Amino acid sequence: MKTKLVIAAIISSLAVVHADEPQDLTILRDSYLRARERALSPLQEKYITELNSLKSRFTKNGKLDEAVEVDKELKAALETFAKKNEETPKAEKPSDNLERFFGEWVCNGVETDIYVIKRNKKAFHGGSTATWQVTGQLLTISWDNGWQLTIDVTQTGSEIIGKSYPPRRTTPDVLVFTTKEKKD
């Protein structure tokens, strides 16, 4: 039990957010915490179910001291899991965040390098046309020339980090987009 608490404390310390940290770090941490929650949730549920079964079995067999110990573990586990759930950033539905992506975006600070994202699932850059879709938290823009651009729609702030994947390459170029004053 002490080992579990020490591990929980270590993991908790990873979740400390610093106001002056890079946005990329905040996004990465939030994504990790949400993924961790998704992965651990079924295990936590199974553990709680098994503890309840064990407590019930001990109670039925008249092993009340053992049932009390299991009950203590059950309460501690529930408290720990509830605390972890409170610490995990809640992913907003992509539709809650999409509105801010429509309009014109300046790429990497170059005023003439403009990306336009329309509500009609179309995007434009230079002479290229693209279509976009949202899968989970990712807005994926697929260009007619084979390039793809992915953006985590849970990002906030006036700068948005995107990953641009050239055709036949798995390592992306990282792009920084800033909003133009006038939106679509």
Q: Key terms for this structure?
A:
184 residues, alpha+beta, Lipocalin, 2 domains, eight-stranded antiparallel beta barrel, 8 strands
Q: Could you please describe the fold and organization of this structure?
A:
Helix 2 (23-60) runs antiparallel to helix 3. The protein has two domains: 2-87; 94-179, Lipocalin, CATH 2.40.128. It contains four helices and eight strands; from the N terminus they run ααααββββββββ. It is an alpha+beta fold and 184 residues long. A hairpin with a 7-residue loop joins strand 7 (159-165) and strand 8 (173-179). An eight-stranded antiparallel beta barrel has the order 1-2-3-4-5-6-7-8. The chain is elongated, with a radius of gyration of 23 Å. The longest helix has 38 residues, at 23-60. It has helices at residues 2-14, 23-60, 64-87, 94-98, and strands at 103-107, 110-117, 122-125, 128-135, 138-143, 148-152, 159-165, 173-179.
